[in-house]
Amino acid sequence: MAFSPLVxxxxxxxxxxxxxxxxxxxxxxxxxxxxxxxxxxxxxxxxARAMTGVRRCETCQxxxxxxxxxxxxxxxxxxxxxxxxxxxxxxxxxxQAGDYRSSYFVLMGHLSPIDGxxxxxxxxxxxxxxxxxxxxxxLILATNPTVEGExxxxxxxxxxxxxxxxxxxxxxxxxxxxxxxxxxxxxxxxAFRGRKPLAD
Length: 200
Hints:
By secondary structure, the protein is of the alpha/beta class. The protein folds into two domains: 5-53, RecR Domain 1 (Helicase, Ruva Protein, domain 3); 63-169, Dna Topoisomerase Vi A Subunit, Chain: A, domain 2, CATH 3.40.1360. The chain has eight helices and six strands; from the N terminus they run αααββαβαβαβαβα. Strands 4-3-5-6 form a four-stranded parallel sheet. It has a two-stranded antiparallel ribbon with strand order 1-2. β3 (78-85), α5 and β4 form a beta-alpha-beta unit. α1 packs across α2 (22-34). The N and C termini lie far apart (69 Å).
């Protein structure tokens, strides 16, 4: 059954969101039209302003509505250490943990030759220039522990081989509160490779 062209267009537009299929998009559209028109207008206004006003920070590539984001403007941040992440959601997760107080660089993806995503597409050249020009002393490669994330981390490390920059990788392994019997082999392998002396 087809609805009016405007309803169909709204449903199709909502389907661009990740994890939103036809039925979910229909439920969202009907809710907005039946009981949430003021919320829908607010959403439309926020979307329009974000789509035109949000850009990438000139320093770290994170989302920002100013040329330089608030994190990069913060004088209390240690600019000598840069944590490289794949997405703004990764940066947010680290920030919410509350322990890291240095700088970031957001790749906005990972290397994927199959999908035609190369180093320049995710700003690796910008990252390397920043490392060399700003006197970065440590680069934390916090890409995801996937095949693509590992390949991206190794590519960046190879490009900086021979420089005095300390390159580190986030530890991977058994989660706190986890039991060995429920951990997959890949995670266990990483845990063994990343083992360290027991602290006193």
